[in-house]
Write a structure and sequence with these properties.
Layout lengths: L1 H7 L5 H11 L3 H16 L4 H10 L5 H8 L7 E3 L17 E8 L2 E8 L10 H16 L4 E5 L13 H17 L3 E5 L2 E3 L1 H7 L3 E5 L4 E3 L3 H8 L5 H5 L1 H8 L4 E3 L1 H14 L25 H8 L6 E3 L7 E8 L2 E12 L1 H17 L3 E10 L3 H12 L4 E5 L2 E3 H6 L9 E4 L4 E3 L8 E3 H6 L5 E2 L5 H13 L17
Parallel strand pairs: 3-4, 4-5, 5-7, 6-8, 7-9, 12-13, 13-14, 14-16, 15-17, 16-19
Antiparallel strand pairs: 1-2, 2-3, 10-11, 11-12, 17-18
């Protein structure tokens, strides 16, 4: 759909389209329109024909319908990587071929990673793997149980050299989180080949659907090509084989109703250790709109009357405020203009206070730059070593070392978001190397591109996710469950 928009505009180079549109017309309406069209394309997955084949011929539920039935009704969901995978060198992979959300399942705040088999059969591309590893990192950081909803043909073979080594990290993370005491659960609801089979049986709990789920290193077509033997997917690696013979799977279910209820029951087993955070189902009024004034953005995201400005008249380029967002206490650093030495030192001081009091930090980057070195190095050290949740929001043109110092990608924010108006300029001197929001979202450089109208709710849920289990009584050091 987004590609059709580009073709109608007479632009042959799809890669340059978003940046061209940004330069020609950066109005609120055009940015929102581009965002909506990209989101429509990603929600459509592999397209109408692939979805019809998935539902009618293969008798499977669409991935988002599965998630809707797994999640507790009426509870908010926070999704990341919504527009990942568009306009990559190996083509479009809408939503990176998977859906990654955090939401409440059986009263437990859970990270869910679900394959979208309508996107090239659920094949794992480099961007698919990058997204999954990122979701696992977030789950590990914030102590979230993980649910893998698997329907995947394994690695995209032309890119296997870029997948094989990195793919092993996914198995490593599953094992490490299980040993840490974080429940790892999988639902096999499709044909899972090679690496997808391993990621299905690595978790402590594996649910497989009779007649729909199957696990094998090579599917029936390859068996026939190699040996001449004709065998069905169910005979080769179906629920009966793995539940009665190999023991690779743990729960035998028939139909989606039983599968989803079984998954919910397994997750609920852990509700005492991992209860959903208080206030998760609350709602906040959205007040943000496109603006280049970061002071206004701070006012808009803060609960009314809760701002306390720190060193308001000292230092330029950074505003520091203690505040509340959705009832959660937070420290906010907002950058605009040229950050001077005093501004950098003020920000360092502010971060240290938030660290001492355990306040999460939100960094807002507007049109920000800097030409200072020593003081900025001090700020970078403070940001890098602060052991509190760190969330970054980029709304304007952020450049060079100011981008890094304000908790940009290189300093590993726990969660990072951009508005459609954001641009990351990679050089302090010129803007010859620039990444717009669309490139950042496609390549998972940020966790998501969000509209101003969803900013407060996104940040509220992010804060609750980040703080939910920081002090959980996990059984750290325990061994992973050994199945064999």
């Amino acid at each position: 759909m987004y590609r059709k928009l580009c073709q109608k505009g007479g632009l042959s180079d799809f890669k340059s389209v978003s940046s061209v549109l940004f330069r020609r017309s950066s109005t609120q309406e055009s940015l929102t329109s581009i965002w909506n069209k990209r989101w429509e394309q990603c929600q459509a997955g592999g397209g109408e024909k692939a979805t019809q084949r998935h539902v009618i011929k293969n008798k499977k539920l669409p991935v988002r319908e599965k998630l809707q039935r797994i999640l507790d009704p009426g509870t908010p969901v926070l999704e990341w990587g919504r527009q990942a995978g568009l306009d990559l060198r190996y083509g479009d992979v809408p939503c990176a071929g998977s859906v990654g959300v955090v939401g409440v399942v059986g009263g437990v705040l859970t990270m869910i990673m679900a394959s979208d088999a309508t996107v090239k059969g659920g094949t794992v591309f480099p961007i698919t793997l990058k997204k999954q590893l990122r979701m696992q990192d977030i789950a590990n950081k914030f102590n979230l149980p993980c649910l893998f909803v698997v329907d995947s043909g394994g690695a995209y073979l032309p890119e296997q050299a870029n997948i094989f080594i990195e793919g092993g990290k996914s198995f490593y993370k599953q094992a490490v989180m299980a040993a840490k005491g974080l429940p790892q659960i999988s639902l096999v609801c499709g044909s899972c080949t090679a690496g997808a089979a391993y990621s299905s049986v690595m978790p402590s709990h594996c649910v497989i659907m009779k007649g729909i789920g199957s696990l094998y290193l090579a599917g029936p077509p390859l068996v026939k090509a190699a040996t001449g033997e004709e065998v069905s997917a169910e005979e080769l690696g179906g629920a009966d084989l793995h539940c009665r013979v190999s023991g690779s799977t743990d729960y035998y279910v028939e139909g989606y109703d039983e599968a989803i209820q079984t998954v919910r029951d397994i997750v609920h087993l852990h509700s005492d250790l991992f209860p959903a955070p208080k206030g998760w189902c609350d709602r906040v009024e959205e007040k943000c709109s496109f603006t280049s004034d970061v002071s206004q953005i701070v006012d808009d995201i803060s609960d009314e009357g809760t701002q306390l400005k720190f060193k308001e008249f000292f230092g330029a380029g950074i505003q520091c405020s203690f505040s509340k967002l959705g009832g959660t206490k937070v420290g906010i650093l907002a950058g605009q203009g040229d950050i001077d030495g005093k501004g950098a030192l003020k920000a360092s001081n502010f971060i240290q206070i938030c660290q001492q009091t355990g306040l999460p930090l939100i960094f807002i980057q507007g049109d920000v730059k800097t030409s200072y070195t020593r003081e900025l190095a001090s700020l970078m050290r403070s940001v890098a070593t602060a052991n509190v949740p760190k969330i970054t929001l980029i709304t304007g043109n952020t450049s060079g070392h100011a981008y890094l110092a304000m908790c940009g990608g290189g300093l590993l924010p726990d969660l990072s978001y951009q508005w459609p108006s954001a641009r990351v300029i990679c050089d302090d001197i010129s803007d010859s190397h620039t990444l717009d929001a669309w490139e950042c979202s496609s390549n998972m450089i940020c966790d998501d591109v969000i509209l101003p109208s969803e900013t407060r709710e996104t940040l509220r849920l992010s804060l609750l996710t980040a703080q939910a289990f920081r002090n959980s009584d996990l059984r750290t050091g325990s061994n992973s469950v050994l199945k064999f």
